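Anyone have tokens for Dystroglycan-type cadherin-like domain-containing protein? Sequence:
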Amino acid sequence: MAAALVWIPFLAGLLAGLGRAEPQQTTLRPAVGRLFVHTLDPEHVAVPPAVPATYHAHLQGHPDLPRWLRYTQRSPRHPGFLYGSPTPGDRGRQVIEVVAYNRDSFDTTQQSLVLLIGDPEGPLLPYQAEFLVRSHDVEEVLPSTPASRFLIALGGLWEPAELQLLNITSALDRGGRVPLPIEGRKEGVYIKVGSASPFSTCLKMVASPDSQARCAQGQPPLLSCYDTLAPHFRVDWCNVSLVDKSVPEPADEVPTPGDGILERDPFFCPPTEATARDFLADALVTLLVPLLVALLLTLLLAYVMCCRREGRLKRDLATSDIQMVHHCTIRGNTEELRQMAASREVPRPLSTLPMFNVRTGERLPPRVDSAQVPLILDQR
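Reply: yep, here.
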């Protein structure tokens, strides 16, 4: 009975976990060529508010997000963002799986985002301009309020025009450097805006060759109108690019296949036929000449080593008699001294023995541990 009572809470918790295993599902409709932003906050993923949480998002069946979609989050105390701009090749249905991690209790919550990517509604936006805003980070302009404020401020430079956000990219993703941890330093963000109205004279002057030349010299570009983006947005006017897609680009010429025969070229005259050639003589010269040289060197070495040796008799005959007598005398005296030293019976001095007792004169074998004696004694 007691064992059954222990298992009841465990089974209840297991059934509750199985009931929560089904992830939440949200359907979103991004448009091709338009900015898509989805905020990941605790309210959307069933995490208690004011609780630090981090997120991991990936395409269903893949370890990472699709190429057009990015994820950013400044810290666990801040919300996360999924943002990007779909391309025409991304049309269709994509499922993004999001896992939220509760940093206090380490619980996880799953959510599925079903993205139905289709064509945008409304007129085409052939006039596109991209600005580098150095006063903000990417997560600071992704919410709707700062983005709308930027479009309203840009309307003073580009009027009359109905502006729409096309894409937002962090400057770090475009090769920018991480700023120093100093107050006021930001990573920077590229904001791409599109419109159906042509560019204003002010924007055309900023992107003119004269302005680019001034920027190359370190001077500010030409700006004929009031900067309505300042002071909330500090734009780098030397990094403004304008793209006009109203004029269709000429189609690439398709090469026409020929008959495979080259036209007659007076500078290229290939031979019509090649004469027959016998390579036997070349092969024999290549093989036999090194062999003959090696054989001659071998015979020369054998003659020097074997046929030109000087024997002992020839050496003695070539030596003078006085030198031979002197040499024999030295050898004889040396042998006589060795025999005299070996036949003497005088005892050796005690001081020359390895060890002796001064009082008794007793000779003792040396009691020295050979393992402690160094192989090479110090020479003093």
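The helical segments are 2-19, 138-141, 144-155, 201-206, 209-216, 280-307, 312-318, 321-343.
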